[in-house]
Write a structure and sequence with these properties.
- It is a single chain.
- The protein has about 325 residues and is an alpha/beta fold.
- The chain has three domains: about 100 residues, Translation factors (Elongation Factor Tu (Ef-tu), domain 3); about 120 residues, Rossmann fold, CATH 3.40.50.80; about 100 residues, Ubiquitin-like (UB roll) (Roll).
- The protein is about 15% helix and about 30% strand.
- The protein has seven helices and 18 strands.
- The chain has a six-stranded antiparallel beta sheet with strand order 4-3-6-1-2-5, with helices on one face. Strands 9-8-7-10-11 form a five-stranded parallel beta sheet, sandwiched between helices.
Length: about 325
């Protein structure tokens, strides 16, 4: 199989027009259509899938103005301890190079009904906030962005954010690498003001802190996005899924395909996606970590152990993410 065959049919071939150093270990990549055509529109909070030659896929938030259909802009933090995608982008993706990306998808939308939008960004988590900020500013919405980073040198998009800093809508917080020395998250989130919606994205410690201090906020007013699978809370198997040495054992549960009536067993060392694929049933996937809803499937019967980080409580009543979801019942009937 050639590298070309690994790309999805819905992928777009775009050209890298500019690569900009934004902060220490952070570059932005401007992507445009090779023939100057407009790109598919996107809503603030959206991301694109980036397809690599080895068949791997990574997700990057769009941080350009959603009103500008001439380009996509992504900001990428080089992580030498990551899975290799950010390293490849920093080392091998240069101006004029052609890359393949998917059409924008949004798992982190803005609540348009909010009276005030409170944005919290930690490090590279500022990328989705940039598109949100541009959109909110364009419609005259009330918003505030608190951007936490290690130092001014680690703060991306400073020039773009400067006008908003001057008018008191964006605040920088640098902690010098010492947790607790920057933004007082507990104080900021202690009281929920009616009509306020919160959006946050950042590294694991930042995400845990914000979650802890928003437990008392009204349901539906807190929105978040994990930008890597490593930032998401780790899912653990229950006692009856593990053997004495901690290895997965036995048959976890069964799935039934409603359209054919066929039943398949899902062992504890495989996902629903993998079992479906082994039996010739293809479901579109992307992150395979429960961080997007690309693979979401409707289920008709059974009790689901939801392990994703994107479906709402209402959506979980009808859908599951087969890349990470398990079953609490003996069988799940899938609407496939």
């Amino acid at each position: 199989m050639s590298s070309e065959d690994k790309y999805p049919v819905h992928g777009m071939r775009l050209q890298v027009r500019q690569v900009t150093h934004q902060a220490i270990n952070i570059n932005s990549f401007e992507l445009v259509h090779p023939e100057g055509q407009e790109l598919p529109p996107f809503d603030p909070g959206a991301h694109i899938d980036f397809y690599f030659h080895d068949g791997s896929v990574r997700q990057y938030s769009l941080c350009s103005d959603p009103a500008d259909h001439s380009r996509y802009l992504i900001g990428v933090l080089r992580d030498d301890k990551g899975r290799g995608g950010s390293q490849a982008l920093h080392e091998r993706v240069h101006v004029q190079r052609t890359v393949v990306v998917g059409k924008p998808r949004n798992n982190f939308p803005i609540a348009e009904e909010a009276k005030h939008h409170l944005l919290l960004a930690g490090g590279i988590g500022v990328t989705p906030m940039m598109a949100m900020l541009y959109h909110l500013d364009s419609i005259g919405a009330d918003f505030t962005l608190h951007y936490c980073s290690k130092s001014p040198e680690h703060t991306a998009f400073k020039a773009d954010l400067a006008p908003y800093v001057e008018d008191g809508r964006v605040f920088f917080h640098q902690d010098g690498g010492i947790p607790g020395q920057g933004l007082d998250i507990a104080k900021l989130l202690k009281k929920h003001k009616k009509g306020t919606h919160l959006y946050y994205c950042g590294p694991p410690g930042f995400m845990r802190a914000v979650k802890q201090f928003t437990e008392h906020w009204p349901e539906g007013t807190v929105h978040f996005e994990f930008f890597t699978a490593g930032a998401a809370p780790k899912q653990t198997m229950t006692g009856d899924e593990l053997g004495k040495d901690g290895e997965a054992i036995g048959i976890g549960f069964q799935i039934k395909v409603a359209s054919t009536g066929k039943v398949y067993s899902v062992p504890n060392d495989k996902t629903i996606i993998e079992v479906l694929a082994e039996n010739g049933i293809k479901v579109e996937v992307s992150c395979e970590s429960g961080l997007c809803s690309t693979c979401s499937v409707r289920y008709l019967e059974g009790v689901v152990d939801h392990r994703d980080l994107v479906l709402s409580d209402k959506e979980k009543m009808q859908y599951l993410t087969p890349c990470v979801s398990r079953a609490r019942s003996d069988m799940l009937v899938l609407d496939l």
